[in-house]
Amino acid sequence: MNRARTGLCSLCVLLLVTSSTLAFAKDEPLQLSGYVDGRYFFERSKNGGAYTNSNTFQLYEAQINLARRLSANFEVHANLNYRAEGPDPSSALGLLDHAVDQAYLKAMVQLGKFELYAQFGKFNAPIGTESVEAPDKNEISFSLVNSKATPTNVTGLLVGVSHDYFELALFVVNGWDQLSDPNADKTFGLSATVKYQWLAVGVGVISGKGAGAFSETYDANRSTVLDVNLSLTPLQKKMLIVLEGNVGFGSGGVAEGKRWWGVLALWYYEPIKYLGVTLRYSLFRDRDGLQGLGARQAEEATIALQSKPLDSVRFKLEYRSDLTSGSVRKHTAAFQGVFLF
Fold first, then answer.
1. Is the pTM for the entire model greater than 0.70?
2. How far apart are CA 133 and CA 142, in angstroms?
3. Which of these, 72, 95, 87, 134, lies nearest to 6 by C-alpha position?
């Protein structure tokens, strides 16, 4: 009941703040965009010694993005969406978390070549390399580093500074993918990126006792995650090479001394404007069971083809093989159509 009241109050506050801020921006037009993401999956999974097959058509996601510039120094964003996966929508708070992908107010101040900015609300976690938005991805599925070792969204406050050659951000949030904080502890983080021409090096750290980082067994213990990545975009950005390493540590109580680590390698090449190919490999080793995988090691290898017949249309084909402790456990073939507006 308390969570339901909290969710309803949060929804009312969100609608009030959004409508109020937009009302003060009559001179700036409301920017409306979004996309629809439809998919077909065929999976062949091994359970024990037997294989089982399944296939399904799926409306995976439909998203509407609203944005408005309130003044030279303020803008508001709200991304409303339906997603087949994500937070449990059975409670009012879960429904709000599920339906609102991002909702934040951003303030900016330009000082010469530097921009100082702050964000307050729910926004994409500023750690890791993999985008969570389907139009920005060259493949369909997510790597194990993204799905197991970094949060998707965070709720709280972020402050940062950006320049042509670097960006630095500090943030304090509820936890990993936590719209409402389930405890009194906050999670802190830092994200830094250095850029020069076709090279970018990023470092991210997130640490706290907030829930979501580990399996529920370790929610009361501190988690600290270090993510380091390298991105190369040679050939006038027709090629993308990504190398990423991620290490997670537990401290205090039953998590003391436990850790995980993961790696990602990705290569994308677009020989012509309307066609691209992706090769990806990721590994996640959870020796001490912090994520509750049921196995010490998981791997995936993926190949994907992407076609862009129009600027507003993406078609993707993907084959993915998942391994557990060195043994192939699942094959997945998928098709995706993404339509932007």
1. yes
2. 11
3. 95
2-20+29-340 in CATH: which number? 2.40.160.10
pLDDT in tens for each of the 341 residues of the chain?
444 444 434 444 444 444 444 444 455 899 999 999 999 999 999 987 889 999 999 999 999 999 999 999 999 999 999 999 878 887 888 888 889 999 999 999 999 999 999 999 999 999 999 998 999 999 999 999 999 999 999 999 999 999 999 999 999 999 899 888 877 789 999 999 999 999 999 999 999 986 677 777 777 788 999 999 999 999 999 999 999 999 999 988 888 888 999 999 999 999 998 999 999 999 999 988 888 777 899 999 999 999 999 999 999 999 999 999 889 999 999 999 999 99
Of 264, 267, 266, nearest in space to 239 by CA:
267
DSSP state, residue 133: S
Q: Which two tokens stand for residue 299?
A: 């791997």
Closest CA to 93 of 213, 1, 220: 1
- Nearest Cα residue to 65 out of 41, 34, 94, 36: 34
DSSP string, 149-187: HS-SEEEEEEEEEE-SSEEEEEEEESSTT-SS-SSS--E
CA dihedral 164, 166, 171, 177 (to 10 degrees): 90
**136 CB burial (10 A radius; 0-12, 13-18, 19+):** exposed
Cβ–Cβ contacts within 10 Å for residue 261, how many? 17
Q: What value does the CA radius of gyration of the chain take, rounded to a whole number of Å? A: 21
CA 218 – CA 222 distance, rounded (Å): 8
Domain boundaries, the chain: 2-20+29-340
CA distance 169 to 162: 8
